[in-house]
TrEMBL record:
This is Alginate lyase domain-containing protein. Keywords: Lyase, Signal. Residues 80-226 form the Alginate lyase domain. Pfam families: Alginate_lyase (PF05426). It comes from Kwoniella mangroviensis CBS 10435. Gene3D superfamilies: Chondroitin AC/alginate lyase. GO terms for molecular function: lyase activity. One of its GO terms (cellular component) is periplasmic space.
């Protein structure tokens, strides 16, 4: 693609979901009120998710490792030319490649389970709690356990090249499954209240995924990629859920230290991100797993949090991304207001509740929705209070 050609990114209806470290234990009363409304809305809608409900299922026959239970996703930046050939357009998402919707099913079930789990812990309503437990159990059973609707833990057909025959996934599968981190968090929050047999079966599914990630060719490519951050975060998060803090801390700490050794200054951290035409987006997408990985280096609810050295490193990275200019396809819609609204999430993690929050006339903390169509989504308003 010519560097002189510019394409505009569409403005999302709300910020993309920003995956955050384990939610804090003492949200404000206002946050709990927002959470109650969101939980009730979920319970009222009664939606259930499965990769088998996707409108486009895995086209590879079961005898070749495919089948309806596979998470099937297409690499988003490939476009078909008038001559029928496929070309890669940096940063431009082809809406046609999102039609499979397997990743959308996974993201929806993960966010829903996570929200319900927070409601179980923090909303003082016995009826709402019981209904949330029952809904989580149903969601887990359908998406991860029942043979007809479960997602195969080995995601061999995630991030397929649309023109490849036969189709097969690649090392970017970690991008598609990263939302499973929310399920790990949710079941660490509410697992003691969930049917223990079902919880065990869910852990077995996640353990299968870990084994596949650690031993398959696809997993090894993700581990040895230029940026293995999401790979290490997912493994450490799964270990925290299945095996406990000790195992996850060992992996997260060694992974973070290895990354730091190779990328000691922000210029090194974001060198790959700055090569892209949507470099602001790529920089924030590098910050996200860095924050997640750092949080996994300490036990849950650790009073002191991450080390001072890690805080300094992350702070330098956040300050660096503030000065990143728009990429060729990010101008003019990726403006400073819109960009800095997302940077504020990472600042809030660093500086705590007294840092970057805004307060309305009644003194309630709210994120700024300025620069975003329809302002912030209900879920992200809730999650702001759990940082």
């Amino acid at each position: 693609m010519s560097s002189e050609v510019k394409f505009s990114l569409p403005i999302p209806k709300q910020p993309l979901e920003i995956l955050l470290p384990f939610p804090k234990q003492n949200p404000s009363e206002h946050t709990i009120q927002l959470l109650r409304k969101l939980v009730q809305k979920i319970l009222d809608h009664k939606e259930i998710y499965s990769v088998t409900y996707s409108p486009v299922l895995c086209p590879v026959y079961k005898e070749d490792g495919g089948g309806n239970n596979q998470l099937f996703t297409i690499k988003p930046h490939w476009w078909r030319n008038p001559n029928g050939e496929w070309e890669w357009r940096d940063g431009q998402r082809n809406p046609e490649n999102a039609r499979s919707q397997g990743q959308a099913q996974l993201e929806s079930v993960s966010k829903t389970i996570h929200t319900l789990a927070l409601g179980i812990r923090h909303v003082p309503d016995p009826d709402l709690k019981q209904k949330s437990i029952e809904r989580i159990e149903k969601l887990l059973r359908v998406f991860f356990v029942d043979i007809d609707t479960r997602m195969e833990p080995q995601v061999r057909f995630s991030q397929c090249h649309p023109g490849q025959e036969p189709m097969k996934g690649n090392e970017c599968f970690v991008i598609a499954i990263r939302y499973l981190i929310l399920v790990d968090q949710a079941l660490l929050v509410s697992g003691s209240l969930i049917n223990q047999g079902l919880l065990h079966q869910t852990k077995e599914s996640f353990n299968e995924q870990m084994v596949w990630m650690e031993n398959s060719d696809q997993g090894m490519k993700a581990k040895n990629a230029e940026k293995p951050l999401w790979y290490n975060v997912i493994l450490a998060s799964h270990r925290q859920f299945i095996q406990g803090d000790t195992s996850s801390i060992t992996l997260a700490t060694s992974s973070f230290n290895e990354w730091f050794t190779k990328h000691p200054i922000p210029q090194d951290v974001f060198a790959e991100s700055l090569r892209h035409d949507n470099k602001r987006h790529k920089c924030l997408f590098t910050l996200e797993p860095l924050f997640m990985l750092a949080s996994l280096t300490v036990p849950l609810h650790h009073e002191q949090g991450i080390s001072d050295g890690m805080k300094k490193y992350l702070r330098e990275c956040v300050e660096y991304v503030k000065d990143v200019e728009q990429g060729p396809i990010e101008s003019p819609l990726e403006d400073d207001i819109r960009y800095m609204a997302r940077v504020a999430w990472f600042e809030r993690i660093l500086y705590g509740r007294n840092g970057q929050g805004e307060r309305d006339a009644e003194g309630k903390e709210e994120p700024s929705g300025e620069g975003w169509e329809n302002e912030w989504s209900a879920r992200m308003r809730v999650m702001w209070g759990f940082i």
